Amino acid sequence: xxxxxxxxxxxxxxxxxxxxxxxxxxxxxxxxxxxxxxxxxxxxxxxxxxxxxxxxxxxxxxxxxxxxxxxxxxxxxxxxxxxxxxxxxxxxxxxxxxxxxxxxxxxxxxxxxxxxxxxxxxxxxxxxxxxxxxxxxxxxxxxxxxxxxxxxxxxxxxxxxxxxxxxxxxxxxxxxxxxxxxxxxxxxxxxxxxxxxxxxxxxxxxxxxxxxxxxxxxxxxxxxxxxxxxxxxxxxxxxxxxxxxxxxxxxxxxxxxxxxxxxxxxxxxxxxxxxxxxxxxxxxxxxxxxxxxxxxxxxxxxxxxxxxxxxxxxxxxxxxxxxxxxxxxxxxxxxxxxxxxxxxxxxxxxxxxxxxxxxxxxxxxxxxxxxxxxxxxxxxxxxxxxxxxxxxxxxxxxxxxxxxxxxxxxxxxxxxxxxxxxx
Length: 423
Prior knowledge:
alpha+beta, 7-stranded antiparallel beta sheet, 2 domains, 20 strands
């Protein structure tokens, strides 16, 4: 059995849910194929991931990706010695050709500068032993495992040299909050990319798995822009899941817990931007490796973007219940997070606030979830109760009274009891 020669494809789905079922089956096959790699030494755990979606025209790459190198930076959470990388063309209408792909550690604290990497850490990825792969429309690929010394909480560069790829329809994640670099040559091993075109989006990449210890496990956060990090610092990695990951890593009982941020800006449980949470749950939550915990922090866009009706609140409760039941069926602990205040935003009305309070009251008292994470209590103004505290206001660049600044996201992360993630 060739442990390091694996490629996984997900046939073009009619629905996101069917795509997820296919992907889960293929991951099971992968587990068998990689028995020699993992043996009894550990288990595959997703150390970084993002929720894929169709890239809107205004979020398209600033220059063509065809026959160019795209270098993207991600913040991994759990460390190890062997990794594999996921690439997706789930929403594409044309094949994507990857001629070469490399991974390396960032040379800086983030992806600022010229996309600098540590050259001595550069490693080539392979796909069934080949240096490249063609990803058909609607499919996804998992690279062969590669030896890579990955520290905990670190910035990793993924460099892709493309062949043919559509200039308009690309699988991506707009809210990367990190700088990506594009040059019109094969520069996957270049120490830096001076003169590169820059963008603050991710394309094609959707996850990194690491072979970790047998007790290693992952938290998946299902969320919207508050989880995706709007209002956080570009290249700062100070979204609340980032801060949570740092806390977990320095706490011995949880040092082997990864955090996978599946927030999508503008997302909602029943609609919004990107695939609705009810449609992407199987793929984005159950499709990750080594998941043992789920945090559901969705609902504000459902309430704020719909006409005031308690039907929205009751439908949210039904969806939360479905999510918890699905998680429990996979032996995953599920935690519900209260909806943070939005007083002063365009979402606010007395009836919308009534819905938020109804949902939060249910979250605090229900027996469906395994516990509650009370973000509302962590950031709300103690006087108005309908606004978040003034020190968490993100300023003129996000003047909506819906999203928080890094201090607000830190307060959210600091409010979480780490014992929730101890076996």
